[in-house]
Amino acid sequence: MTSDRSCYVYIVLPGDVQFTTAGRFRIRHGPRGTATGEFVYGRSYLDHPEAVEFDPVELRLADRLYRTGRMAGFFGAVRDAMPDYWGRFLIERRLGRSPLAEFDYLTEGPDDRAGGLGFGPTVDPPAPRLHFPGTVQLAEAIFDEGTSMGGARPKAVVEDGDALWLAKFSRLQDRWNDPRVEHALLLLARECGIRTAPSRMERAGDRDVLLVRRFDRERSGDGAGWHRHRMASALTLLRTDDSPTGRERWSYLALADEVRRASARPRDDLRELFTRMCFNAAVSNSDDHPRNHAILARGRSWRLAPAYDLTPAPAHSLERDLSMICGPKGRRARKDNLVAGAGRFMMSREDAEAIFAEVVQTVRARWLGAMCRAGVGTADRETVRSAFLPDGLFFTREP
Ligand SMILES: Nc1ncnc2c1ncn2[C@@H]1O[C@H](COP(=O)(O)OP(=O)(O)OP(=O)(O)O)[C@@H](O)[C@H]1O
Ligand SMILES: [Mg+2]
Fold this sequence. Notes:
This protein is of the alpha+beta class. The chain has 13 helices and 14 strands.
């Protein structure tokens, strides 16, 4: 039987740049390969006047033992702080072994992970990381030490100006200039009134790199460190995962319910979420899975995080599915389905129709211009053209 593993969990509290020890996370291995996760907030943390919860659904601030058997014992808040395909690949490459125990992917990656948490073996937290490669070292940054940020695409965290940026590189198997097309969609989303992370293009050697400003890090006023804002993915809010049964719970409607409960400004955030859902339908972003949505706490309270990771999926078919349920008719990206869920977003049907119409109009008028501004070439523009406003978006089916 594999032995139990445990670590301390640290957090950078709102307004701070140093870690505070917040609790202890343990994985217990049972018979027949079962694994259970356990988490407790420390007494001194619970007594801390500035203590905050890790997330608003699963690990609320309370003096109790939390247990989970889901996701091999990894709570949503812990999973959100771990690397995915890309970061794992680099850890395996550095250690020369694969696959590793799940716990190693948590502790072996660099301390640049998403959100406010840190993990380590000692009760006293380490000094949090201050320095990151600059944009001039972009090319080296991608492999040198890896990153604990999630996602499948090659990426690195770099420092430029007063901010940290997520640098996203192209891959050999890409069908188009992915960094530029993603930049174009971020520009287009902004034109639709969607709050997105600022982004810009850079070069690393002969490759294009997309820089997306990290919204979970902010340099402190005195420049002495980084504030770390807590983040919880929609996967965590929906208490689900990537497994086939977990996918049944991927839903904008259920996410709207969670955002309504967690957000300090539910009406604004639900309107924003609805706009993003319409946008994803209008540009065939079928990679809109729940790790590509999050809530963020810049201080004590939670808001919907800016939009990120937007990609078009061109296809010949007339009708498209989103990866999350987007209306009472399931995942179908069709106007009648999208607007039928208006009530869950605290909106009237008329408001929902107006937002849909405005997104469609903006995408129609501006998508090509956004591609050009992002420097997407003619051939790539033709390749992705069919992603924009597919005919099926406008189908209506009588009940
Ligand atoms: N601007 C940002 N600020 C802070 N965190 C971010 C930002 N953009 C992305 N992230 C975090 O980093 C993770 C990976 O980023 P992103 O989704 O852009 O990468 P990806 O490799 O394209 O993902 P996927 O596997 O979905 O294709 C996200 O799931 C999110 O947790
Ligand atoms: Mg992603």
